[in-house]
Structure formats: structure tokens, C-alpha cells
Amino acid sequence: MKIFSGIQPTGAKHLGNYSGGFRQYAATQDQGTAFFCIVDLHSITVAHDPEDLRERTLDLAALMFATGLDPERSTVFVQSHVTAHAEAAWLLGCVASYGELQRMTQFKDKAGKQTSVSAGLFIYPVLMVGDILLYQTDIVPIGDDQRQHLELTRDVAERFNSRFGETFTVPKGVYPEAGARIMDLQQPENKMSTTGGNPQGTIYLLDPPEVVRKKLKTAVTDSGREIVHDSNEKAGISNLIEVMTVATGETIAEVEKRYVGAGYGQFKSDVGDALVELLEPIQARFRALRDDSAELERMLAIGAAKAREVSAPTLEKMYDRMGFTRPKGV
Ligand code: AQP
Predict the structure, then answer these.
(1) Which CATH architecture has domain 2-174+292-321?
(2) Which CATH class is domain 199-287?
């Protein structure tokens, strides 16, 4: 089985990224041949600072290993180090339709918040389609916000296969049972987000313990008392229950049972403690890894070499099936 997922080196990574991303990467890496990609080409779809992008790329690599990716088992690499990704995006951009891309809700949300919208932001889902298909991926561990992009990937793969002949495995998305969409602690109707969220309602993975505890204490809830999961009526408390499941590995029912009769104040404080317990060892591992940039760069270079080797035959097949001549005899 082939596993692939990508994550952007944009901004500070948050608990939502941990829930839908990092922890699923570590959990799925044992199920087959796993590729985890730092999608730096995606990061330039919005205004960015070049120096910041370089630093964030290494930060993200360190976080991926700190949250449990094993370089012996998983291929961790940077998207721009493997030129097949940019090439596949062009070929697949001529298979995906303008109408499909116009329907992407993430594009509509992000474009609505900016005065200048790059063409890259519009076509970025096609880059993601290529990222996944180049590895003949069976499963893609992601959060709920990526569901529509994964559906697009499946549609484009099926269209390519029927138009040009069987070329791609059609991948399936894998979503966490609880915590597939962690919400902002201050605005529980919105997802916890790098670009669109409220920093006070966002738990960053590198937040110090006292900051984590404070953000939990001031989390928005409702006027009730019961710690029960009901996303429609009790969005804030339901989100905190899911945060607790992410921190402890319990199910929603187990958390509810443990807090029968307890008040919101105690619960919020316990969620804060559980998160600190989860994050402290990750932060310690992160600091140790990040201190040695040369070693991180070496690990990423090994990952890129493997990713190039595995993606190249699929890219060749795409060119061939689409009728391109290829350079020969040189
Ligand atoms: N709130 C979330 N709950 C669960 N999973 C989430 N993910 C993102 N937000 C949540 C998952 O994290 C993985 C990596 O995402 P990404 O950093 O590449 O970018 P994103 O999905 O666009 O989300 P961000 O980081 O919050 O950026 P914004 O919102 O600014 O675009 C993905 O698997 C994603 O599903």
C-alpha cells in the first residue's frame, strides 16, 4: 500500500494540523510505503517572505520527525526538490476543468479575504492532485478541510485513466474519527486555521505551556453545564471534547463518561493539562532536531532522491499516454 500526504510550510503549525496531519502520518507510516511532502510550492500561492519560507521549511521538517515520522520508514521530502510535481501539475491542469476549480470552497474562502488573488491560488488544487497521483497513492491521511480537494483528485485520476488509458491508482482519503476538523477556540464555528483564524483561539504546536493553558481557560463555550458532544447546539464544548480525544487518544464517549457531572471550568483546565502533556515532549524533540539544520537538510536530500526515483516512472507514463515525444539517445 502507498501512503502520501502533503503539508504546507506556511505559518506556525497548529493543533488542527496535528490532528488531521502529523498524528495521522505517524500512525499510517507502518501500513505500507509512505511519502510525506513539505509542499513549499503551495506556500507561495499567498504573499510570502522568501527568508521566512526557507526557515519554515526546516521548522516543518523538524516537526514532522518530532511528531513521530521515522526517516527509516517514511520518505520525507520537499516538493520543490522533485521537479516532477511542477510538471505533473501542468499536464493535469489540462485535464481538470475551470468549472471544477471554481467550485473549490477553500479557494473561494481565501480569495474572498484578499485584495490581490494569485492565479496560483486558483490552480493550486491541481498541484495537489499531481502530488498525490505521482506516487500511485492508495491512501491520503488528511483533515476534513481537504475532502473536496481529494474528491477532485479522484475525479481527475478517473478522467485521465478513461481518456488516456489506465495510468493512476485512484486514492482514498483517510480522516480521523474525532478531530477531523478542529475548530477555533474563540470562534468554534470556524476551523482552526493558519491564515484565517484568531491567534487566541489557535493552539500552536510550539506554544509554551502557560500560553496553552490560558487559551484553554478562555475558550468560548455556552451557558450550559453538560460535557456532551453536540456540534450543532454546543459547538465550543464539542470541540474541546475532540481536542481532549486528540491529546489522550480516548474516544468521544470515553471523555463524556469521564466528565459526567463535572463543570466546564474543570474540564477546560484538564484539557489544557492534557495538551501540555502531549506537546512538551514534541517541543523538546523539535528543539533538538532544529538545532542541527545540516542534518535536517541531509535527511531531506535523501528523501528527495527516493521521491524522484518513485515518481519518475509515473511522470514518464503521463507524457507517453498524452502523446509527447521524449528525448532519446543522448
Ligand atoms: N482545523 C483542522 N482540523 C483538522 N485538520 C486540519 N488540517 C488543517 N486544519 C485542520 C489538516 O492539516 C494538514 C496540513 O494542512 P496544511 O498546513 O497544509 O494547510 P491547510 O489544510 O490549508 O490548513 P491550515 O494549515 O490551517 O491553513 P489555512 O487554513 O490557512 O489554509 C491537512 O491534512 C489538513 O487537512
Answers:
(1) 3-Layer(aba) Sandwich (3.40)
(2) mainly alpha
